[in-house]
Amino acid sequence: MNSVRMDKWLWAARFFKTRALAAKACELGRVQSNGQPAKSAREVRAGDMLKITTPGGEFQVGVMQLSEVRGPASVAQTLYRETEESKELRLKVAAERKAMHEFEQLPAGKPSKRNRGKIIRFRGRG
């Protein structure tokens, strides 16, 4: 096997829970291969450098192995190697996010009926 579809590899490497989510991320430009935006049908080869943006953070990884099959997490981690800068940046962002929770002030009780209506309208559900 010389190459694998981008969405299959992202799914097999456990960056996304489903292939559909991996394909959607490619469509939205959240995946770059060797500095170029990658479509879901693009072929991934060993040695490619990928930049992947997920809700969990931004990853810069080098492709080590190819797989079309989603296996255990321990096997999925052997498919790629994350760069040191990427690891440091993700840890820094996680620490900042954790620190922000300490300064966040939560309301004392549940919202009133009027405030609840405002929240619903703000979220675009009503």
Summarize the structure.
By secondary structure, this protein is an alpha+beta fold. It has five helices and seven strands, in the order E-H-H-E-E-E-E-E-H-E-H-H.
Helix content: 25-40%
Radius of gyration: 19 Å
The total count of strands amounts to: 7
Taken in chain order, the helices and strands follow as: EHHEEEEEHEHH
Please describe the biggest sheet, giving its number of strands, its sense, and whether it closes into a barrel.
Answer: 5 strands, antiparallel
Q: Find the CATH topology.
A: Structural Genomics Hypothetical 15.5 Kd Protein In mrcA-pckA Intergenic Region, Chain A
CATH superfamily: RNA-binding S4 domain
Structural class: alpha+beta
CATH C-level label: Alpha Beta
How many domain modules? 1
Low-confidence stretches: none
How would you sum up this structure, described in words?
The protein has 126 residues and is of the alpha+beta class. The protein has one domain (4-122): RNA-binding S4 domain (Structural Genomics Hypothetical 15.5 Kd Protein In mrcA-pckA Intergenic Region, Chain A), CATH 3.10.290. The chain is built from five helices and seven strands; from the N terminus they run E-H-H-E-E-E-E-E-H-E-H-H. A five-stranded antiparallel β-sheet has the order 3-2-5-6-7. The chain has a two-stranded antiparallel sheet with strand order 1-4. A hairpin with a 2-residue loop joins strand 2 (31-33) and strand 3 (36-37). It is elongated. It starts with a strand and ends with a helix.
